[in-house]
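Sharing a chain and its predicted structure for anyone who wants a worked example. Both blocks are below, sequence first, C-alpha cells second.
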Amino acid sequence: MKLMTKGLVVLLMSAVAVGSVAAPPKGRKLPESAYIKTAKIEFSYHTKERNANAVYMLDSLFMHYGPHSEGLYLMCLIQDDYAKTTADLKAKREPISKLVAYRDSLRIACASKEVKAKYKGDCDKASVIDSLIVLNWRNLYNDGVGQLNRIEEDLKAKESESDSTTIAFYQKKIDAQMDSCIDNMTLAVILDSTNYLPYVALGTVYEYKGDNESGVKWLTKAMVNAKERDKLASEVAYSYIRSGKYCEAAPYLRESMVNAPKDTTLVVTLYNLAACFNNCRQYDSAVAVYRELLAIAPANGDALVGMGRYYNQIGRTATDSVRAADEAKNTEAAKRWTDARNSAFDSSYVYFKRAFDASPKDVDAAGQYGLIAYIRNDFKEALAAFTRLTELEPQNAEHFTSVGDCYLNLKDWKNAAGAYEKVVALEPDNKQIWQRLADLYQQLGMKDKQALAEAKGK
C-alpha cells in the first residue's frame, strides 16, 4: 500500500558511507549545496555502492536542513535506480515503497508554508517523479497481466492432460507464474493504491490458488475505487458462495444487481440471493426475494417452488402446534393453529400448482404439487402430478406407488391395481405392494392373481 508521510517527516535511511565519500566530521554541518552536489556526483555512477553514498549525503542534508525538494527528488531517482537494478521482485519491494514515500514527502514539502522557499527549487520536478511512478506501475501491471494470461492457458492445458508427469509439469509452471504475478501486482498496489485493477488481478490469482479467503479480501479492496462496483460485487459474492459463506455473500449479490437489466442474469442472481438467505435461515428475507423474482418472471419455477416450500414448512410447524394444543386440551389454541395450518397449506398449494403448470418437465415441482394436493385430499390433482412423474422418471417405483395410492383413495380399484403392478415389476420383492394387490384382486374377483399376490406378500 502507498506509504504516506505525516507532516514534514522524511523517510531516513540507515545506509553507511562507503566508497569515495567520507562522512563529515561528527557534529560538522556542511553547506546545503555540498550535500546536493556530492549526492549528484555519486548517483551519476549508478552503482549500488555509489548510490549508498548519495543516500548518506541526502540523509545528512535532511537531518541538518529538513525537507528539501531537490534532495527528495534525487532520493526518488535513487530508489528507482535500486528497483531497476534488481531482477528479484521481492527485493524490489523496499525501494519501490521508498520511492512512493519520498514522492509523497516531496509533494508535502512543496505544499508546506513551513519549508523555506530556497528549498523548493525543484518542486516543478514532482511531476517527473509522478510520471516515473506511472511508468513503473504500467510495466509491473502489464507483466502481471501477461502472467495471469499464461496461468489461464496452462490451467486449460493441464485439464486436457491425463499423464501425471505432464500434469505435474504444468502445475509447476502455474505455481511459478502465480507467485510472480502476485509479486508484480503487489508492487503495482504499492505504487498506486487507488487503482483497483491490480486488486482484481490479485483476487483472481488467489482464487486460482484455491485461496478463496485471500481472493475475497483483494476483490473487496478493489471495490473501494472500482468504476463498476456491481461487477466486482458479483465476483465477491460468488467467491463467498464457493467458500460456503452464504450470509456474507448476500449483501454483495444485492449490490451486484444495482445496474443489472431485467434479463436472465437478474433472475439467476435473485434466485441465488434467495438461496443464500435460505442457507442463512433467513427465510422471510428469502421469500421477499422470491416475490421480487416473480414480479419480473411470474412463471419462474424455482421461485414458485421456493414459495411453496416456505408455506409448506409453516403448515408443518402449525400442524405440530395443533397436536400440542390437542394434547393440552386447549380448544381455542387448537382452532387457531388449525386455521393457520390450513391457510399455510392453501398458499403452498397455490404456489406448487403454479410451478407445476409453468414447468411441465420439472420433477421437483410435480413432486411437491402432488404431495401437497394429496395432503389436502385433492386426489385427482395429486394423481395428475404423480402421473407426470411416472412419465418423467419411469424407472422410479415410488411414483407408481403414489399413483396407485391416489386411485385407491378414488376407489378406482382397477387402475390402482394397474399402478401397483408396475411397482412390483420394478421391485419384485416389495411385499407391502403385493399385499395391496392381493386385496385389490379380491375386490376385482381375480382369484388366480389374488393367490399369487398373497404368496408373494408372504
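Comments welcome. DSSP finds 20 helices and no strands in the chain.
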